[in-house]
Design brief:
By secondary structure, this protein is mainly alpha-helical. It has one domain. Strands 1-2 form a two-stranded antiparallel sheet. Helix 1 packs antiparallel against helix 2.
């Protein structure tokens, strides 16, 4: 629960046990900002290239985290879903 005391924090404190749920919308927004600046015609190639590198760094870190992720009951086949989207040219 966001309160006056923790509103500055980028995380939402979820329950009395102190479970913390990171704000994934903020991560998505950062990715959007990097993409926007990378594609912005007013930026030079150096800036666009730096934004692309940052996106690759994020992708590599996400891939590393997914490799460590355990299997959970009723998990959808995320890899199959991803591959189908990739084949369709959507990713």
């Amino acid at each position: 629960m966001v309160t006056k005391n923790n509103a500055h924090n980028e995380r939402v404190y979820y329950n009395e046990k102190g479970m913390i749920i990171p704000d994934s919308e903020k991560a998505k927004h950062i990715i959007w900002e990097l993409e926007f600046e990378m594609l912005n015609p007013r930026n030079d190639g150096w800036t666009g290239s730096d934004m692309k590198k940052r996106l690759w760094d994020i992708k590599m870190r996400v891939d590393q985290a997914i490799l460590k992720a355990p299997e959970y009951v009723n998990d959808p086949d995320y890899e199959d879903i991803y591959l189908l989207e990739r084949i369709k040219g959507k990713v």
